[in-house]
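ok trying again, last paste got cut off:
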Amino acid sequence: MCVLFKKEGSVWREIGKTEVIMDSLSPKWVKNFEVPYHFEKREHYKVVVYDIDDFNNLGNFAGHDLAGQLEFAIHEVVTAPNQTLEKFLECDERAARKSGTIKIIADERQGINNEEANFKLSGSFSSQEGFNFFLVHKFMGPNNFKPVYKSEITSCLGGRFSWNLVSILTSELANEDPEREIRVEFFKSQKSGKHINLGYISCNIAQLREGQLEFQLMGRGRNQSARFENLVFHKRHTFLEYIFGGCEIQLSVAIDFTLSNGPPSDKESLHYLDLNKNEYLHAIKSVGNILQYYDTDK
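nice, full thing came through this time. structure:
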């Protein structure tokens, strides 16, 4: 798992975490982080890679093994060849250049296109055994692709592997370029994390709009194919568009009055009957004070 931090003064503020990838020495994280870019400012970030030990408490960084970290300026990424910064991770417990490398890819969000592509993928492979998944990649430059979507793992049914509906903005796939390559890579899942590459298909938005929906896999094996099904392009509405259209938000609250929290007369109890100190009440008021504006009957 990767955690991204931004330096604010002398403090590192957490921006977010990636998903956890199991048992892989060369993980590719799908999670993207949106950060502002200011030409006139020198802004510093830090990425920390952890080997996860406590899956029930991902935020407890001290409970995980540190794989390495890297401090960098956002300018380093945007000015690197193909906007791809690759450097060695650092860890005090290991010698220099012995903690692996990390690759950071920058991608400018262009345009105001809110068009969304909805589709299902199915595939026919040389083997119908096991469990397969796929990764959707965005073309970033020669021999440089960035993963933007990872499917669930599924088994073969009726001679084909089929996956759940994918909903993704076309700008995330190709910015505003309908001819930009989109690569979908298929894998046979392995418990060891060393997944078997089954091959890939290469397509673009223009081909899909024209009705070319089935493609032969390249790179591995023969007579393997993948097909786009139920493909629809439509506008993804924003939150404010839903609000302007009359959508309302209601608040429901459920509190588990667990006996282990102690009696409400105990000042240390979360159920303590003091309107100024009760943490449940503070949480309800904090959320309710915002949501009240989106509900006509409050």
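cool. The chain has a mean pLDDT of 89. The chain has three domains: 2-105, 115-235, 244-294.
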